[in-house]
Give the backbone structure.
Amino acid sequence: MAKLIMTADDSASVRQMVSFTLKQNGYDVLEAVDGKDALVKLSSQKVDMLITDLNMPNVDGLGLIRGVRAGALNKFIPIIMLTTESQDGKKSEGKAAGATGWIVKPFKPEQLIAVIKKVLG
Amino acid sequence: MMEQKACDPKRTADASARTLAIDGALTIERSGEFRQTLRDALAGAQQVVLDVTQVQEIDIPGLQLICSACKTAAAAGKVFTFAGHLPACLLELKDGIGACQNSPCSHNGNSSCIWFGGMK
Amino acid sequence: MIEQHIVTYREEANELLAELETSLLELEENPTDEELIGRVFRAMHTIKGSGAMFGFDEVAQFTHEVETVFDLVRNGKMTVSKLLLNLTLRARDHIKSLLDASVSGEESDRAEGEAVIAGLKQLVPSSPNEPSPPPVQSQPAPDAEAETLKTWRIRFKPCPEIFLSGTKPLGLINELRELGTCHVVAHTAGVPVLNDMNPELCYIYWDIILTTARGMDAIKDVFIFIEDDCELKVDLIDDGGTGDTDLDYKKLGDILVERGDLSPMEIQKILGLQKRFGELAVAVGAITPDKVQSALVEQQHVKNVRQERATQESTSSIRVPAEKLDLLVNLVGELVTVQAHLSQTAALHGNTDFASIAEEVERLTNDLRDTALNIRMLPIGTTFSKFKRLVRDLSQELGKEIEMETEGAETELDKTVIERLNDPLVHLIRNSIDHGIEMPDVRLAAGKPAQGTVHLGAMHSGDSVLITIRDDGAGLDKEAIRAKAVERGIIAATAELSDKEIYNLIFAPGFSTAAKVTNVSGRGVGMDVVKKAIEGLRGSIDITTAQGTGSTITLKIPLTLAIIESLLVRIGPDYFVMPLSSVEECVELTRDNIEEAHGRHLANVRGAIVPYIPLRDQFSISANRPDIEQIVITNIHGTKVGFVVDSVIGEHQTVIKSLGRMYRDVRGISGATILGDGTVALILDMGLLLQSAEALEQGGVSSAAPM
């Protein structure tokens, strides 16, 4: 059974690119346009992993990560944050919120898949 | 009937044994529930036979619970074994994390672990 | 596909720019509205981030500068001013022109971009004059020390809450496995009883022994996401250097001390007890058995690594042009000849000092010969692997399902022999596929698996190598072969032939059993060509078959073409050599014996009748015939046949020289060699001699024909 991965990003182009890359590599994809949309969808849908942008309207990435970790259904899933900030500050903030790992934009599709494989185990 | 060793997988047909069947995903999401089930079972029987043949998925927390139950049983002089065969997902995880390399268990008289060792 | 992302990005960027414009204009009205500031920031953040993803580097770099300023505004370190808004609107227009330029391919107005950035920088309060870092590529730097295999001990102890961040240790361990050879030991001793357990925490830690060509950085990269959430200890325990030739690794106690599992004092105490260390350490309660087990795994791992390295070093090789080797073998051949001369001369002089030197030289020469010939030996496996492709392609072409198995690929043969074996083997394999293996439906109907098997094997047998090509196909059809042979005029319709003789007919010139000529088995080239090629290698070919279950073709090939063990014989003044591999024994032939046989060339060897060929007649040697001649009994393709010579001189190391083009077609002579005293001896091709003798017999009296 293919693993289901959610991509939460307010940028349609990034969502499309992530989605496309995931599907090419045999994953199923669930898209969310921002943190709020993601939280609503994740409250009723079990996924295997979440890839989220940090800067999003409504609920931002950190809020989304905290929300997922506080919930029940997807509490233990790996969460990867997409960030343009390569500074440690953002990373540790995300980690503290409960992120599993990160990937720094811009990234190549291969890099994304490598990180997914790493955290999906 | 009582002369068997602490963990003898062949003695699963014992009448006093309580069989506990688990199916589906034995993962962290259900770990709290599984821990309680194991505790209750061990509290109420001299021998508990765990049937995981129908388990489709298991992770490290799931494996830890089985290990913990085995130790709990050993500490109380009880028997904790499994019925039938171990499912592929468990064998895979055990090999994957190197649990098989580590068969002697200090909680069980340094004997070989029937779950992760000796059962190649 | 990437094109499609770019189009989406442009649309998205244009929407964002429109939104940015609206937000900026609104911000002019409400310069402190945080919601608006956030929107402006996010719009630029997305334009930048996605721009970098899809190759809009100029857009990304420029937007980054503007975003940096708005980050300050967002964090309250700067206020929104009229000037800032003006500059930002100009920036927005510039981003738009950069995007448009990327479509039209025109140059964008670089000066405008620089002006905007310069203006923005002046606005930044006490602007720290460092340039903002460009987006960093998160690619791990290539390892500098990516050459030698080193062995590392990794102790990975995740913090108990590791599962709560979605981290899966198995994934990390598997990633380590991808780096090299890996032994993983999980320590489960820390798992508490159920009552004391929080099932969502991690109680296990790991020792991992990893041998990899990648460095420390590659190992640490595996744990990059959790470097703050685990105890990670990476120690180099074998540096891959050749200094550690000692296969034995550290003592168990030393490993445990290094790992911090035991203190040196405890070790001393345990050692005082004089028993096996591991058992003792556990027995005195100093340590749990899992830790000992894990240290033992390390010991074994490093021992294996060192062993492998030692083997690798001993098999490390240098490349030498083949001609140099050929030259070397030729020189050794000359040396063997000279050495024979030396030995002969020494024997003649009867000087013991001289004789002992000659003996010494003989021994060294023999060693040198064996070594030199050995250098030219190559495993036949390289040829085998070529055939896998052949089988695959051919079976596809014919619509058959065929698997190829190989065995004994490591069997060594002289390089030139391997080269000359290639074509015959190709032909034999083609034959097996084309004529042997049936179509899948036929196979199923016969109760066989749809997939046929062609088995290619090689093994040593004395001074020869046996190569077998076995298929599980239909086998040879005796009647079909016979019918075809009659049709082709190869045998008479009334000929009485044994099964073996019938099967051997497929080696007759111009024979083909295929109902139609396919691309695969080719045209015109038959098994006769294969047979000739094998005999050219002084080898033989044999076929066994069972109808319905398959055929096996066995090639017997001498190890080398350069030097053979042989028997030296003499007829009149002339010397000849026979390959020793086919010689069985020598018996006397007296005039009485000849008379008893009534002129027929048959000898009675301990009750068995053995036909013989008088070589004297064969080569028309006119010198006087001695009263007692010698018959050298040989075994040629399973047939016993004798060759009559004047006298047998003895065993001889024969360095084979070709006869040259002039004598290429002489039948019965396969080459020549030079004896110690410089005399030339001819090498007999006994198979061909037998054939021509048979042909002669069939023309005349038929009774004595062997086979």
Q: What stands out?
A: DSSP finds 22 helices and 21 strands in chain C. Chain C touches chain B at residues 163, 168-170, 173-174, 183-189, 191-195, 197, 199-200, 202-204, 206, 208, 282, 288-290, 293-294, 297 (CB under 8 Å).
